[in-house]
């Protein structure tokens, strides 16, 4: 993980290193200068010529004036590295395989992972600089101690080894404690209601007391896990401090004997002691920082997993120059979710522009799953899905991911104006208002006092569900895709908006491949061809053919007709 973290923000790394060396020099220079003066005072052998004093002043001045400029470099490196990780992670989240994406939720992404990335400041700003300073100080101590025939150079090594052994012993419990703490935090977050709407619902159903008890239970669990974590951190800090101060005591005793036996001068002993103390204090800080890094390990493991397992945008872009989709063929395809039985099999489809295709079937039969396959989001278990003349599955999948537009019953509108929402995508027609007019879309917008500049509110809540759906529909159409899949887009809106959208879909189907997933009889009746998903198989036919030849279809439609007549 450390190696991986270090690989980010490459451009700022050299600047950061320069700052670290500068700061280290500033730290040791006074010690060394004092030592030199002390030597001179004791022995009178060093001849301070005017030139050497001037050179020393020059070096110090350069470092001193370079320091403020360099000071921000670690900060820049930290910001760049964190930005890169955050960007790759968010791209990964958006490109995650939909099966795995089911496990992603706002708490995990925002409260754990993104906050985990923020806490990486400690790695870039503190752990790495401390580690470098530690290394440089140790090299200096090693050279001086060997030159002055002292064995103190061995002490920091022994101390580090002992700390390593202690940490390894604690490692057995450390990760579990960290994971338990994180899971406690997330599970409490899941229970947290952050809007009035949620609280109102609880009151209406008189479920607030039950909910409060469950929330207290989760908070208590989190409290216990936090205490476990603090206990673990305190125990390890105790071990760390004992080792550090123990080593310092042994080192001081060694130097005292060196001095007493006149193996070393006072100046030499003092220099070695200051360097050793500096080393051990930095080791102590490092030990503390390692704890913070360890607490971000669950988040970082997940973050790198998402980054490594998501489709990268370059994969999608690879085929952006390939021709558009004129036909989609599905041959003998079957699909099963991991560890689940086959959802459907022997699927054979041939979709072309000019006809309005429908996909009809019982709830949970696998219609939306097929839509995900046709969007290149899910891979079939066997068979072929192709949209190119060559049957290259990977290229077809990438092209489908780019050229298929999908709309569900619950689209998302962003807070902002209608215009901002409509023109969210790239590459749309410059005369987008004229294009929408031709399709009979968004006419209601012109009647609003502020027209296309009307604010839609958070999630589009200032608009009616039907208006919201019309905007989302229009936004997708403006993307000028080759294939459109509409998944129950008119299921929960009023009949007026439903008619407007259906009319536009029909016009669209004259030029594009359009597949409509629906259970509404009034819509099914207008489809050219229907793929009826029943008993894990797809049956193709017109409404009349299916109505006459397929009992399951006939039964389903009769129930649906009765239901719609009642409404
Ligand atoms: N990521 C997933 N992992 C495992 N099973 C899943 C996953 N997504 C959906 N399923 C299951 O697959 C089955 C088919 O789901 P799908 O949403 O494709 O059906 P559908 O025909 O579109 O249903 P509906 O008409 O209710 O929208 C369901 O039983 C569903 O629980």
UniProtKB/TrEMBL annotation:
Its main location: membrane. It holds the Pfam family ABC_tran. Keywords: ATP-binding, Membrane, Nucleotide-binding, Transmembrane, Transmembrane helix. It is found in: Cell membrane. The chain crosses the membrane at residues 21-41, 47-67, 122-145, 151-170, 237-257. Coiled coil: none annotated. It is a multi-pass membrane protein. GO terms for cellular component: plasma membrane. This is Cytochrome bd biosynthesis protein.
């Amino acid at each position: 993980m450390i190696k991986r973290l270090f690989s980010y923000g490459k451009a700022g790394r050299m600047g950061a290193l320069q700052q670290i060396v500068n700061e280290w020099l500033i730290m040791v220079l006074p010690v060394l200068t004092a030592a030199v003066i002390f030597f001179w005072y004791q022995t009178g052998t060093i001849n301070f010529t005017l030139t050497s004093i001037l050179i020393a002043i020059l070096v110090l001045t350069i470092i001193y004036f370079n320091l403020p400029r360099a000071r921000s470099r670690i900060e820049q490196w930290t910001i760049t590295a964190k930005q890169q990780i955050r960007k790759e992670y968010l791209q990964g989240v958006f490109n995650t395989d939909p099966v795995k994406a089911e496990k992603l939720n706002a708490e995990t992404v925002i409260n754990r992972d993104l906050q985990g990335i923020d806490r990486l400041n400690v790695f870039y700003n503190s752990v790495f600089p401390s580690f470098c300073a530690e290394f440089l100080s140790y090299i200096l101590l090693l050279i001086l101690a060997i030159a002055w025939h002292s064995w103190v150079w061995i002490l920091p090594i022994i101390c580090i080894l002992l700390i390593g052994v202690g940490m390894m012993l604690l490692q057995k419990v450390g990760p579990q404690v960290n994971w338990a703490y994180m899971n406690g935090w997330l599970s409490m977050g899941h229970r947290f209601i952050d809007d009035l709407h949620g609280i109102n619902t609880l009151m209406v159903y008189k479920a607030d007391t039950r909910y409060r008890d469950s929330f207290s239970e989760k908070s208590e669990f989190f409290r216990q896990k936090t205490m476990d974590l603090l206990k673990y951190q305190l125990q390890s800090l105790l071990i760390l401090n004992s080792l550090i101060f123990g080593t310092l005591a042994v080192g001081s005793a060694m130097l005292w004997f060196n001095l007493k036996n006149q193996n070393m001068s006072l100046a030499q002993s003092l220099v070695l002691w200051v360097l050793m103390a500096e080393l051990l204090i930095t080791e102590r800080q490092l030990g503390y920082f390692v704890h913070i890094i360890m607490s971000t390990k669950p988040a970082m493991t997940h973050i790198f997993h998402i980054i490594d397992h998501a489709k990268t945008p370059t994969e999608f872009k690879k085929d952006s120059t390939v021709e558009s989709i004129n036909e989609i063929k599905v041959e003998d395809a079957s699909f099963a979710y991991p560890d689940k039985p086959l959802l459907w099999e022997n699927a054979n489809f041939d979709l072309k522009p000019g006809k309005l295709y429908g996909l009809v079937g019982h709830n949970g039969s696998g219609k939306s799953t097929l839509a995900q396959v046709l969007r290149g989001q899910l891979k079939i278990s066997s068979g072929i899905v192709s949209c190119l003349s060559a049957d290259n599955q990977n290229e077809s999948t990438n092209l489908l991911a780019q050229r298929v537009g999908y709309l569900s019953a619950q689209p998302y509108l962003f807070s902002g104006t209608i215009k901002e929402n409509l023109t969210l995508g790239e590459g749309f027609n410059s005369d987008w208002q004229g294009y929408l007019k031709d399709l009979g879309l968004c006419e209601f917008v012109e009647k609003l006092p502020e027209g296309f500049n009307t604010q839609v509110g958070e999630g589009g809540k200032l608009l009616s569900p039907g208006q919201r759906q019309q905007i989302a529909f229009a936004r997708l159409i403006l993307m000028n895709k080759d294939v459109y899949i509409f998944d129950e887009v008119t299921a929960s809106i009023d009949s007026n908006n439903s008619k407007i959208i259906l009319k536009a879909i029909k016009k669209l189907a004259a030029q594009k491949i359009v597949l409509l997933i629906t259970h509404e009889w009034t819509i099914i009746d207008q489809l050219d061809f229907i793929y009826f998903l029943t008993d894990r198989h797809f049956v193709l036919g017109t409404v009349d053919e299916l109505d006459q030849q397929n009992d399951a279809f006939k039964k389903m439609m009769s129930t649906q007709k009765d239901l719609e007549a009642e409404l």
